[in-house]
Amino acid sequence: MTEDLPAVRTLIVDDDFRVADLHAQFVAKVPGFTVSGIAHTAAEALEQVRADRPDLMLLDLYLPDQSGLEIMRRLGEAPTQPGVIVITAARDLAHIRAAITQGAVHYLVKPFRFATLAERLNAFRDLHFRLAELDSDSGEADQQEVDGLFQLMRTGSITTPPKGQSAETLRLVRAAVRHADHDVSAADVAEAIGVSRPTAQRYLSALAQQGLVELRLRYGATGRPEHRYREVRGS
């Protein structure tokens, strides 16, 4: 998916310069994400949201001028409203409840492992582009799609197929992965079954989300890692 879609532009908001830089490094390591900016105060964060329109904000709640919760309350005034993943040392239920009420999609307590952040970022990316697909299609969602979106936000996976997905194409893509004697790329699958590479990538991503194929990253000398897929044994 990330090879064919624009990167999720991410704003880092933390008053600690060292921590903000560390979070920016984490984000840059996750395929499909780019850092749009770094802010160390609430005022800087709101200004960058208005000027740069990021897709996602990694937001600390403790800032020198205003609470991160106040930033979340004021995001509705911006031309576009980014998703928010709260990253904070606040563990009390008052902050957690307020962040949920204000619409945070995830809440990470410092300190945390990179793998934990990567998992939350990947879930947000999938949710972000699923919403974009629905918006470009009909701008509406039926109950099954709504349930799938909320499941994706909660768990990072989805069991209902994307709208418009062909069961036959899904079967062919899965068969191409199963019958290969090595892991395959979206381009390999596209050539094998006669579809476009973006189409193969969409179906491979759906299979990976359902745990039917395994995604592996192959790192080269430069650039982003190549996405490779193989069958999950016993699936």
UniProtKB/TrEMBL annotation:
Gene3D superfamilies per record: 3.40.50.2300, Winged helix-like DNA-binding domain superfamily/Winged helix DNA-binding domain
Record keywords, A-Z: Activator, Cytoplasm, DNA-binding, Phosphoprotein, Transcription, Transcription regulation, Two-component regulatory system
Keyword Cytoplasm: yes
Pfam families found in the cross-reference section: HTH_IclR (PF09339), Response_reg (PF00072)
Keyword GTP-binding: no
Entry-annotated residues carrying 4-aspartylphosphate: 60
Residue ranges occupied by any Response regulatory domain in the UniProt entry: 9-125
Cellular compartments annotated: Cytoplasm
PROSITE patterns reported for this sequence: RESPONSE_REGULATORY
Name the UniProt record assigns to this protein: Transcriptional regulatory protein
High-level lineage: Bacteria, Bacillati, Actinomycetota, Actinomycetes, Micrococcales
